[in-house]
Design goal:
The protein is mostly beta strands and 970 residues long. The protein folds into 3 domains: 566 residues, Maltoporin, Chain A (Beta Barrel); 166 residues, no CATH class; 111 residues, no CATH class. The chain is built from 12 helices and 46 strands. The radius of gyration is 30 Å and the shape is globular. It starts with a strand and ends with a strand.
């Protein structure tokens, strides 16, 4: 890795040197007094109180990354767990991360628990939340502007306030630049497919009007990367991981089959798949439409200007960025108007097949009467299908940030004050694969008018409004017919979503020397801050769930979140640096914050640094931190999404809803915000040492821990568990407006337990009701029939406790004919405990699915005059596959192919990739080549993901390269 730990007394941070830096002759110059991330005190050496990692612009360039999100995926503190995400997780549905956006999360605790700063101040979060977690889109921060990135992976609310639960990532932008540089780079994979990406950026700095101006601009463009572009991702990992819903070649729904088994689509384009019931069906696998990386285009520009007016310095920094991305999710399932399975097709739909096929089909199915939207009674049968086009959205995000402030000195004290204005605006449009449920059912029954309305039925004839004509009947079984496709296009919708997130802030602080005590100078910093945050996320009406239409979203398979909230906060802090002796230093800090919605909070910090000898430093810190409920969590009005419930964590839930299996299920839910949420709270500890026996060797070891409480989330498993004993949470049919709880099939209330109680009655025996339901309905699965749109409220649900150890080793060797360097970075998770869903039981995540216990990197570099090269090895430990989350038929297939051990488990293999970088510095230009994953290591097989690999911790791109050219003007 390229991590450089900053130890007190071991580096001169003001000029950006590191332990691996070359020795330089001392010069007499005025050294600017600055504060480093983790402290507001200027001019004193505080880095030793806790570990701080710094990555320079040069290191970022040599990493081969072409965006900040790509680089942060290589940083040890942001690897492992599910907190960080990139555009590989983007999609069109409300459960996907926003298209084109990415977030960095420290220690796997989630993006909203990591405070993101730019030049030490906040930046507006994305208006489109990831779930309900607001986050800063790191793709909106211009790469060309980065001078360095500072990562402090420990609680820092005592200094910075809310959200610094896991720590702080501070992106420092270029300033005081003299000259100009122009960079162009191009990268691609080594495959025949085109995943090309190129980057252009420009930096210019000069003296202007008595001040200094630095200007930068950046442009980035990247092609999409599909699962179909690699042999190891194009096909399903398991044949049994199929969906019964094929694309535009419908199966006939089992309910309409005389023998009660699904009938495969007569015109299926693939081989039939045999189900666990012995059916031969036309199946669908998500690999067909999976984008492993979305296309992305971004452009940004900004400037930094500072000018002195006597003893006062005025500075302003500004940047603007625009990103555009298109992302997709699997084609939407086609359901009935009320969202239940198996839509109806008119019996004439089968007339497209030859007579023998028609006769066979009619002999095998029931043709029954059904009612249409217009009120006709027609005859037909039910089918299973999804649309042929993936749900596709286009997102454009425009962000800007302006900070302008004054600074100066009062005696020996430095002061500064600044105003911050930051805004992020996103616009999303559904551009393909999204269909109106009412129009679709109207056109599939020949009841759609050319103006988009449903025809009126007078008991004998269908009629349309004036100047409108009745359209023909759409046939879901007919493919490749232009006229039929045009009818389906009449049902297409293009829902929109508009979001805006703003931060307005003012801060003032002063730092300097308080007094001397025992010949030691005590320094301090004091500050105040005022901040107002606003967020709106407003989807178009056709993608909202509303009580007045029975919570049915107008379009199939496309939910949204309606949220609006604002918050005002003020805070004040004090920080003290106290050298108790020549060898022992103390850092004390405390911050009080008051919010107009949830109240106030105080967070202290204590840091101790001890240097028995110049080459050895011991450090320890303790602090508390908090995360205010995000504005989306506090202000979401109604969010249509899906919620998982874990049958494996609660046997009572498994017996009633999962036939006793321990798999994970998903249900359509309506999620409500909660204005009464408490802040999440955390206590963190960091203890370690740094040892530099020579100028060329540095070893650091740090133990860290977080105890994170009152996590904000929804818990479907807990709701199902609570509903077993709480009748107020059980509803036959839709959950009434204003209530929360579980929605059951309306017919479930037709059966009772032995005492004559229905499922809605207090004291009802749910096990007996399940037995009666099975006898009454003879369902395919012996479980309580859930309906749709369960209503669940966000709440403070549980806790997570994380502990680990970081080890870094840096060694430079002067060979006479060049310099050899070794950089090793290792993170070991000792513990990652979190509440099981729906249970007070704590589960251990370290070493389980997507939580590797060990993350490591090793870099070997060599420099000779103007030539440099390095080899970097990135290692991700093995961890348990998500076998518990699979369905019974998938477990049977794994057992058949021998993929499981004697305990019915398996591990995802460890993954090691090798990157090579080499370059040459000419007098006025630089050429650099990065070769990533040079051994073309495929990602380890993971049956717990439908992709066949874990796209959070691994990458399917394979061997790839980046060639960069930079031209300098002095």
């Amino acid at each position: 890795m390229f991590t450089k730990s900053l130890l007190a007394g071991a580096m001169t941070f003001a000029v950006g040197s590191s332990f691996a830096a070359e020795d330089k002759e001392p010069q007499e110059q005025d050294i600017e007094r600055i504060a480093v991330t983790g402290s507001q005190i200027k001019g004193v050496d505080l880095e030793g109180a806790q570990p701080l990692s710094v990555f320079s612009a040069e290191e970022i360039s040599k990493s081969g990354a072409t965006s900040i999100s790509e680089f942060m995926q290589q940083v040890g503190q942001t690897r492992g767990g599910t907190g960080s995400f990139s555009t590989s997780e983007s999609g069109a549905t409300s459960t996907s991360t926003p298209a084109g956006q990415a977030a960095a999360s420290l220690r796997g605790l989630g993006p909203s628990s990591t405070l993101t700063l730019v030049n030490g101040r906040r930046i507006a979060a994305s208006s489109f939340a990831a779930g309900t977690q607001n986050f800063v889109d790191v793709n909106s921060i211009p790469l060309a502007a980065i001078e360095r990135i500072e990562v402090l992976a420990t609680g820092a609310s005592a200094i910075y306030g809310a959200d610094a639960v896991a720590g702080v990532i501070n992106y420092i932008l270029k300033k005081d630049y003299q000259g100009a540089e122009f960079n162009v780079s191009y990268g691609n994979s080594m495959e025949s497919t085109d995943e090309g990406k190129y980057n252009l950026n420009f930096v210019f700095g000069t003296d202007l009007a008595g001040g200094q101006l630095t200007v930068y601009a950046d442009y980035f463009d990247r092609n999409a990367f599909s699962a179909q572009d690699r042999d190891y991702t194009k096909d399903p990992i398991l044949e049994s991981s199929y969906s019964y819903l094929p694309k535009n070649t419908p199966n006939i729904y089992y309910w309409s089959a005389r023998d009660g088994n699904e009938i495969g689509a007569p015109n299926c384009k693939t081989e039939f798949v045999t189900t666990e019931f012995g059916e031969e069906i036309c199946a669908y696998y998500g690999n067909e439409d999976d984008l492993l990386q979305t296309e992305l285009e971004s452009a940004s520009a900004g400037f930094y200007y500072n000018k002195e007016f006597g003893d006062i310095q005025w500075s302003t920094d500004f940047f603007y960025s625009q990103t555009k991305s298109t992302s997709q999710s699997t084609p939407a399932p086609i359901d009935q108007v009320d969202d239940s399975e198996g839509p109806w097709a008119n019996e004439t739909a089968l007339e497209i097949f030859d007579q023998d096929t028609q006769d066979a089909l009619f002999d095998a199915i029931y043709v029954d009467p059904y009612d249409t939207l217009a009120g006709q009674e027609l005859w037909g049968f039910r089918y299973d299908a999804r649309f042929g086009t993936p749900r596709t959205v286009e997102v454009e995000t425009n962000s800007f940030r302006l900070v302008t402030g004054l600074s100066g000195e009062i005696g020996e004290w430095d002061w500064e004050s600044a105003v911050t204005v930051s805004r992020s605006e996103s616009e999303q449009t559904g551009i393909a694969g999204i269909y109106n449920r009412y129009k679709y059912h109207a056109v599939s029954n020949g009841e759609l008018c050319s103006d988009g309305s449903t025809a009126l039925f007078d008991g004998a004839n269908l009629g349309c409004p004036a100047n409108s004509q009745l359209l023909a009947m759409y046939n879901p079984f007919l493919e490749g017919d232009a006229a039929n496709d045009a009818l389906l296009a009449m049902a297409q919708e293009k829902p929109t979503r508009d979001g805006e997130s703003s931060v307005y802030g003012w801060d003032a602080k002063i730092t300097g020397e308080l007094f001397e005590l025992n010949d030691q100078t005590i320094s301090a910093a004091f500050g105040v801050e005022y901040r107002q945050e606003e967020i709106t996320d407003v989807p178009s009406l056709n993608s909202r769930a509303r009580p007045e239409n029975g919570y049915l979203v107008d379009v199939f398979g496309f939910g949204s979140s309606l949220s609006e909230a604002e918050r005002t906060q003020y805070g004040m802090f004090a920080e003290f640096y106290w050298p108790l002796t020549d060898n022992l230093e103390l850092q004390l800090a405390g911050r009080y914050d008051d919010y107009d919605d949830f109240g106030d909070t105080f967070n202290p910090k204590v840091g101790v640094t001890y240097r028995p000898i110049d080459s050895l430093v011991f450090r320890a810190s303790w602090s508390t931190a908090f995360r205010a409920p995000s504005l989306t969590q506090a202000g979401v009005k109604l969010r249509t999404t899906t919620a998982a419930f874990d049958c494996g964590s609660n046997q009572a839930v498994a017996d009633l809803y999962c036939e006793g299996f321990g798999d994970e299920r998903r249900e359509n839910v309506l999620e409500l915000g909660n204005a009464n949420l408490n802040p999440e709270e955390s206590e963190s500890v960091s203890v370690g040492f740094g040892f530099s026996p020579t100028d060329s060797i540095t070893l650091t070891v740090d133990y860290w821990s977080f105890e994170h409480e009152d996590l904000v989330d929804t818990d479907m498993t807990a709701l199902l568990d609570a509903a077993i004993t709480d009748s107020a949470l059980r509803h036959c049919g839709l959950v009434p407006n204003g209530s929360t709880g579980i929605s059951y099939d309306p017919d479930l209330c037709l059966v009772t337990d032995a005492a004559g109680l229905t499922i809605e009655d207090d004291g009802a025996n749910l096990t007996q009701i399940l037995d009666e339901w099975v006898a009454f309905d003879d369902p395919r699965y012996a479980e309580l029939p859930l309906y749709r749109d369960h209503v669940i409220e966000l709440q403070n649900t549980g806790e997570q406790n994380v502990k680990g150890v970081d080890v870094t080793y840096i060694h430079d060797i002067n060979l006479g004919s060049g310099r050899l360097s070794f950089d090793m970075d290792w993170t070991h998770y000792l513990e990652f405990e979190r509440n099981k869903p729906g249970s007070d039981q704590i589960e251990e995540l370290a070493g389980t699915w997507r939580y590797p216990e060990n993350i490591a990197s090793l870099r070997i570099g060599y420099e000779l005059d103007s030539f440099y090269t390095s080899v970097t090895t990135l290692y991700t430990d093995s961890y348990e596959d998500d076998i518990e989350g699979l369905r019974g038929r998938e477990l049977d297939e794994l057992d058949t192919i021998g993929a499981l051990d004697a305990n019915g488990e398996r591990e995802v293999d460890s993954w090691t990739t090798v990157n090579i970088n080499l370059g040459y510095d000419f007098s006025d230009f630089n050429i650099n080549l990065s070769l990533n994953n040079v051994l073309d290591e495929e990602p380890p097989t993971a049956y717990g993901s439908s992709r066949g690999f874990d796209s959070i911790n691994h990458n399917a791109l394979g061997a790839n390269y980046r060639l960069s050219f930079t031209y300098f003007i002095k």
